[in-house]
Amino acid sequence: MATRNIVKIGDPILRKTSREVKVFDKRLHVLLDDMLETMRKADGVGLAAPQVGILKRVVVIEIGDLLLEMVNPVIVSQEGEQTGAEGCLSVPMQQGEVTRPMKVKVEYQDRNGDGYELEGEELLARAICHELDHLDGHLYTDIATRTWAYDPSGNEDRK
Ligand code: CO
Fold this sequence. Notes:
By secondary structure, the protein is α+β, with helices and mostly antiparallel strands. Helix content is 19%, strand content 36%. The protein has a 5-stranded antiparallel sheet, sandwiched between helices. Strands 4-5-8 form a 3-stranded antiparallel sheet. The mean pLDDT is 95.
């Protein structure tokens, strides 16, 4: 595994539409492994492939003990509403207030191409919506009702 550079806001790659994954090979597995390591190193709860410069419909999410590797994810239904703070590894030192569904149902494939369906609520629903938006070139800043400066560590020396 290796960490990859996280693309930051302003880079046009973040605005492109990612392609569906059709080949579930070693290359995809390496991408997923690298994305997980990159996300963990950056203390994120989610990362989408375009954020490491790869325009494939691939995201990783880790919330507590739940680790999700989602390939070709699609939100098939959503319910309710939640408004809260959101951040993005591609938008450093900032958070914003974003309204998302309270609950979503998502269909996706795993790294081997097997299909799954999952229901997520609250933070998981927010993370799924946020990461899937990246696959279509959308950032939370596009829909945030307000944004503010935020330092996740409170430490100026954070790498
Ligand atoms: Co993001």
